[in-house]
Amino acid sequence: MDVYKSGILFLRKLSTALGEKRILPICFELFLGHMEATEWKKRHAGISLLAVIAEECSDEMVMRKDCLDQVTAIILKSFKDPHPRVCWAAFNFMQQPTNLVQAMQILYHLKIVYALDAALDQHRNPTVKEQVVSALQYLLKNVPSDSIRMHKDLDTILWKLQKEPQKTNQNASALRNMQL
Question: Which one of 52, 59, 84, 154 is CB 3.0 to 4.6 Å from 125, fit for a cystine?
Answer without folding.
Answer: 84
